[in-house]
Amino acid sequence: MKIYTRTGDAGQTGVIGGRVDKDDDRVEAYGTVDELNCFVGQAMGFLDETKFADLLADLLEIQHELFDCGSDLALLKQELRPYKVTAEMVDRLETWIDKYDAETPDIQRFILPGGSQASSALHVCRTVCRRAERRVVTLARTQEINEQVRRYLNRLSDLFFTIARLANTRYGVNDVEYARSAKVFRRK
Fold it and tell me: What family name appears in the similarity comment (predicted)?
């Protein structure tokens, strides 16, 4: 099989159920999810396999689920096949957030991206995830989507924030607090 097909040379690409322009909102949405998946893989490379075996397994599952998100976003009409992303997947992200947040110190001020290399990479995942969510919001204004994808990405960005802090905690590095921030968060 050849990697190149030449079918996109005129500025269109195939989606499930037809062809659209390469800058279509649908392509922007699933393309940003694909970009996020790449950053997740990169962030995984900064995590020690011993200290983060649990998190690495969860991140691998997230990579598969990001493919599911992309697949659902590439679907022009739900009648073509059932959606892959479910409410249960969103609920599981909340469970992971609670589990990993319990390991981190109380947060009082806004946190700057930084500390350890792993934490910085996970903060990049958080911001790319937020951009993917914005692209999905834009898409949903005019086209049919799986609403669970939007919920999943919203919750996933919260998870990335939490595990960025977890990375610093497990590596023994302090979060970088925003120096000009008042104490804006209440204790747990």
Answer: Belongs to the Cob(I)alamin adenosyltransferase family.
For the cut 90, the answer to whether the pLDDT of residue 137 exceeds it is yes
On the question of pLDDT at 49 being above 60, the answer is yes
- Residue 132: exposure state from Cβ atoms within 10 A (0-12, 13-18, ≥19): buried
Name the DSSP letter for residue 156: H
Please report which confidence band the pLDDT of residue 4 belongs to, taking 50, 70 and 90 as the band edges: confident
Taking the C-alpha atoms of residue 93 and residue 86, their distance in angstroms, rounded to an integer, is 11
The Cα-based distances of 55 to 67, 100, 141, 169 in angstroms read: 18, 9, 34, 13
Dihedral sign, Cα of residue 51, residue 188, residue 95, residue 40? negative
Domains and CATH numbers, the chain: 14-100+110-172 (1.20.1200.10)
Q: Please give the share of the chain, as a percent, with pLDDT higher than 90.
A: 77
Q: Return the beta strands (E) in the chain as ranges.
A: 12-15, 18-21, 111-112, 176-177
Instruction: Return the number of other C-beta atoms located less than 10 Å from residue 142's C-beta.
Output: 9
Higher pLDDT, 40 or 23: 40
Mean of all residue pLDDT scores within the chain: 93
